[in-house]
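User: Predict ABC transporter substrate-binding protein's structure from this.
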Amino acid sequence: MARQTRRAVLAALGSGIAATAGCGAFGRERVDVLVAGSLQKAASETLQAQTDVELAVEARGSVQAARLVADGKRDPAIVALADPALFDRVMDAAWHAVVASNEMVLAYNPETDGGTRVAAAEPWYGPLRTGSVSLGRTDPSLDPLGYRTLFTLDLAADYYDEPDLADAVLSPDQTYPETQLLAQFETGAVDAAFVYRSMAVERDYPFREFPPEIHLGDPAQAEQYQTASYELPNGTILTGSPIEYGAVRRAAAESARTAFEAVLSGDWLAPHGFTVRQTYPRLVGDVPSTVTR
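Assistant:
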């Protein structure tokens, strides 16, 4: 593992493989960027405003995004995912940069009866257990938010001594694509949803916070988080860990380097509710020599 200061990372530009680039509007260079669903607004708005190149942003669940690249169905210049482990496990990338953190919360719609029950409930999971609240979450086979929701419930079961909590709360009809999850509030399809703090902050929805032992956002609780696990359909066992976001640059073009420099700064993430620690960006793996130098 290689680590560099923020200044050193931003001053250095690494090499990469060929990836999609072109000319965008008004003659600006275009850079194709594939991001996690929870990064869509931050990338399309704030990151775009902080770089002179035109970003063509596509958002998917992180697992799905990594698979699209691994299968050759997408060839983005930059990939930013909600779980850095996917760069190795799915994409087989030689390196990546960790750029931000987040935590799990339970967002609710204050305009619905179910949402008001979540707001007033003690403990927070009471209305979820009784089925008096329609709940939304994402598919754990498609994105990290989905399996982190399961980790959160697993950890909550131990924390509150409610061993059947997940079974009581979850049902197959609750899953939505990450990019559409909170939009279900507007249609009235759900009263509450397990989301990242950043997602609730962006849409200005109120939310219930969880203790550090549960919310997956405290590095000091890493050992506790590891007690939660989930088995993917392919048999891979995932274990809980502090939430982090990672990014990698796959193109050598100057436009891609310029855009990636903005990605590494982290300045595009903090206004959207992400946590950008002083230790970020953290470089991991066989980082190109022009970055590690």
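The chain has two domains: 30-102+243-285, 104-239.
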